[in-house]
């Protein structure tokens, strides 16, 4: 599993910044790709997983909205509630003071162990490679072409998947390639997402 090292604002007793690690940003897999994997490795037909997951998400969303905890094979989903502002008087709290802060997920021990059993070690990703990649026209053009072959256009999210750079960095790079006299891409809005295409 590739990982990157970041410096935390937290310091140790000597005043040195503590370090932390996380998986490489942009290293993602889409539901369509998982669907294709399952079609190859199980009895499922292409598209069945996507249909089932869509139905699952809709049902789980309704159940969570009713305040239920939803237990699955991989873990439990639960709604997370918070008060809109700090309050000290329990009697004065009513429905208007509560908001949905998010959805929590607690993985089952068996699922965690399954992930651990499939992990084939760890590999440090040199973050300096990101800076080099940003100036590598061949690498950038290849990533853009991969996006176009897959979707017909480029989005920041898809671009970051193929380059391994962050969303914000990818977005800035795509914007720079779609502005100015020498722009190689043109940008348009699709729904709420900017998409980029070859000129």
Could you give a short description of this structure?
The chain has a three-stranded mixed beta sheet, with no helix packed on it. Strands 3-4-5 form a three-stranded antiparallel beta sheet. The chain is of the alpha+beta class and about 200 residues long.
The major beta sheet can be summarized as: 3 strands, mixed
Low-pLDDT ranges: none
Structural class: alpha+beta
Oligomeric grouping of the chains: single chain
Mean pLDDT over the residues: 88
Count of extended strands:
8
Strand order, main sheet: write it out.
Answer: 2-1-6
Q: What is the number of helical segments per DSSP (H or I, 4+ residues)?
A: 7
Beta fraction: 25-35%
How far apart are the termini?
A: 37 Å
| Helicity, as a percent range | 40-55%
Overall, the morphology is globular
> Using only CA atoms, what is the Rg?
22 Å
Order of helices and strands: EEHHEEEHEHHHHEE
Summary tags:
199 residues, alpha+beta, three-stranded mixed β-sheet, three-stranded antiparallel β-sheet, 7 helices, 8 strands, globular
